[in-house]
Design goal:
By secondary structure, the protein is mainly α. 48% of the residues lie in helices and 0% in strands. It has seven helices and no strands.
């Protein structure tokens, strides 16, 4: 399937808002918003896992360590229990990669300083195409 970079490039905040309705019962997203059953998600992209002061995270989340990368968010949203051992998050996950990408793009927008998105594979392919074509021409000329 498409790379995460491709999925994020095609994702929209508007679609993310629709999918995120499933999350609103447990999470707030306002800057300075309160924690509910789950932590507030303002500035979650790039934030330390288990990093919201005053929220009682599971031991598994506290032990996970590191920052929330796009790849980690994708894996967690796909199936939280597979990504974090004994997570308190009871949500089963988002099966569709496009839905996860839309939610991640929404979460990215909920920030004081949104992190850059990863490059889409199509962009990498287009940049590499002239070099590959030149190499192929050289190989053909040598034969």
């Amino acid at each position: 399937g498409p790379s995460l970079g491709d999925l994020l490039a095609a994702a929209t905040v508007e679609k993310g808002e629709k999918v995120f309705k499933k999350c609103k019962a447990c999470h707030t997203t306002d800057n300075g918003g309160k924690n509910l059953v789950g932590p507030n998600l303002w500035n979650v992209v790039g934030r330390t896992k288990g990093g919201v002061d005053g929220f009682a995270y599971s031991d598994g989340m506290k032990e996970k360590g590191g920052a929330w990368t796009y790849e980690d968010l994708d894996a967690f949203l796909k199936k939280p229990g597979d990504f974090v051992n004994k997570t308190k998050m009871s949500f089963a996950g988002l099966k569709k990669a496009e839905d996860r990408a839309d939610v991640i793009v929404l979460l990215r927008s909920l920030s004081d300083a949104p992190l850059d998105l990863p490059a889409a594979a199509e962009e990498e392919t287009e940049e590499a195409a002239p070099e590959a074509a030149a190499a192929e021409e050289e190989t053909t000329a040598e034969q």
